[in-house]
Amino acid sequence: MTSFRLPLRGTAIVLTMMAAFFLSACAANTSSTDEHGLLPHLTVDMRLPSELSLGSSGQFRIAISQDGKPVQADDVAFEFWPEGHPEQRVEIPGEFGGSGLYTAEYRLNSEGVYVVRCRVSSGSLEAMPAKRFAIGEEAVLRLAALEQQQTAGAPADGGSSGGHHH
């Protein structure tokens, strides 16, 4: 049986060429990145009301920026729904308050765990951050359990949503 062997110098040249090929294929387009190497993006800081209670309205806020500068978005909407029931989604347009700040008022009429998601678009950029919040003592405990499961790497719903809906 005949074996084919490249001389050591030939092997080094082939490996160098392969490395150059792979590295060139992975080269980043740095002309459209920021100082951290990230592509252009919107930063959305979502703030929940400090006090939320059953039957009263809470003011939900976001601050939108790009590269540390406030952004006036083309479209902002707040979406609310009970956890596990996105078909009950309620959409409220965000009200512009200047300097990249937007707000929406939402009244909670039943206890439970809720999701608030903001849909933000500005030019070709979009962001859709979401947060959970709870109304009522049982819901607060359920939300804490969901967050603990999520932190431990379990699925967000954990399969334990049965029997906790009101």
Give an overview in words.
Pfam families: YtkA. Residues 42-116 form the YtkA-like domain. There is one protein chain. With 166 residues, the protein is an alpha+beta fold. It has a domain at 43-151: Immunoglobulin-like, CATH 2.60.40.1930. It has 2 helices and 10 strands; from the N terminus they run αββββββββββα. The protein has helices at residues 8-25, 137-151; strands at residues 43-47, 57-66, 69-70, 75-82, 90-93, 95-96, 101-107, 112-122, 125-127, 130-135. Strands 1, 2, 3, 6 and 7 form a 5-stranded antiparallel β-sheet that branches. Strand 2 and strand 3 form a beta hairpin. The chain is globular. The termini are far apart. The model is unreliable at 11-31 and 157-166 (pLDDT under 50).
For the structure shown, list the relevant keywords:
166 residues; alpha+beta; Immunoglobulin-like; 5-stranded antiparallel beta sheet; 2 helices; disordered C terminus
Helices and strands in order:
Layout: H1 8-25, E1 43-47, E2 57-66, E3 69-70, E4 75-82, E5 90-93, E6 95-96, E7 101-107, E8 112-122, E9 125-127, E10 130-135, H2 137-151
Antiparallel strand pairs: 1-2, 2-3, 2-7, 4-5, 4-8, 6-7, 8-9, 8-10
The CATH architecture of one domain is: Sandwich
CATH class of one domain: Mainly Beta
User: What portion of the residues fall into strands of 2 or more residues?
Assistant: 25-35%
Rg over CA atoms: 25 Å
How many helical stretches? 2
Question: Could you say which structural class the secondary elements and strand pairing correspond to?
Answer: alpha+beta
Low-confidence stretches: 11-31, 157-166
Largest sheet data: 5 strands, antiparallel
User: H/E series, N to C?
Assistant: HEEEEEEEEEEH
Q: What gap, in angstroms, lies between the N and C termini?
A: 77 Å
Mean pLDDT: 81
